[in-house]
Amino acid sequence: MNLTRGVRGQTLSYIYRGLIIVLIFFGLVFIGGTIYAVFFQSTPMENRRSDIPQISGTEQIFTGIGRIRVSTADPQPGMVIIFVLFEYNSGDRPFSEELALRVGEFRNIIREYVGSFSIIELQQLSEETIKAELLRRFNQILRLGRIETLYFNDFMILG
Q1: Quick one: which of 34, 95, 70, 76 has its CA closest to 155?
Q2: Distance from C-alpha of 6 to C-alpha of 18, rounded to nearest angstrom
Q3: How far apart are CA 88 and CA 127, in angstroms?
Q4: Residues 89-110, buried b or exposed e (16+ Cβ, 10 A)?
Q5: What angle do CA 121, 123, 126 make, to 5 degrees?
Q6: Helix 93-101 to helix 103-114 angle, to the nearest 10 degrees?
Q7: How far apart are CA 132 and CA 129, in angstroms?
Q8: How far, in Å, CA of 14 to CA of 40, rounded?
Q9: Terminal-residue alpha carbon distance, the chain
Q10: 60: exposed, middle or buried (C-beta count within 10 Å: 0-12, 13-18, 19+)?
Q11: Distance between CA 24 and CA 126 in Å, rounded?
């Protein structure tokens, strides 16, 4: 009886040692990967589109609209994924608050405008044309300030 417990205990001891070695290995891989990512990989902003401005001071980039998925006007609808952002003066408190309050309206404007086109029509339009029309429509509803330029972080037509 004591012999079986001794063999069993030894077997469990080997299993525990093996598990500890595996955990240490994965821990080292995790720590090494983290160090590599921090020191040797590009930052997320370097991978973004180049037309997004670099800003300073009280200028901020408004990203509150978020990523929107819009169905196209085709009989077999496609999908447009769009992420609109723009610069604004964060020091202008009333305008900042108005922007935050109008996020739902901005999203609806994007859905209505982009969703009114077929995939082929969207492919024929330039990004600049779409940006200009969205900018015009955004500024129509704003009362306390104006948006100067829109940027697309994402603009993909899937169909």
Answers
A1: 70
A2: 18
A3: 21
A4: ebeeeebbebbeebeeebbebb
A5: 100
A6: 50
A7: 5
A8: 38
A9: 71
A10: middle
A11: 54
Phi/psi of residue 7, each to 5°?
-70, -45
Please give the single-letter amino acid code of residue 135: L
pLDDT tens digits, one per residue of 12-42: 788 888 889 988 988 888 887 777 777 666 5
pLDDT, tens digit (0-9, with 9 covering 90-100), for 136-159: 999 999 999 999 999 999 999 997
SS3 letters for the chain?
CHHHHHHHHHHHHHHHHHHHHHHHHHHHHHHHHHHHHHHHCCCHHHHCCCCCCCCCCCEEEECCCCEEEEECCCCCCCEEEEEEEEEEECCCHHHHHHHHHCHHHHHHHHHHHHCCCCHHHHHHCCHHHHHHHHHHHHHHHCCCCCCCCEEEEEEEEEC
Contacts for 151 with CB less than 8 Å, ≥ 6 apart: 49, 51, 52, 53, 84, 85, 86, 131
Q: The tokens of 122 are what?
A: 């969207």
pTM for this entry: 0.65
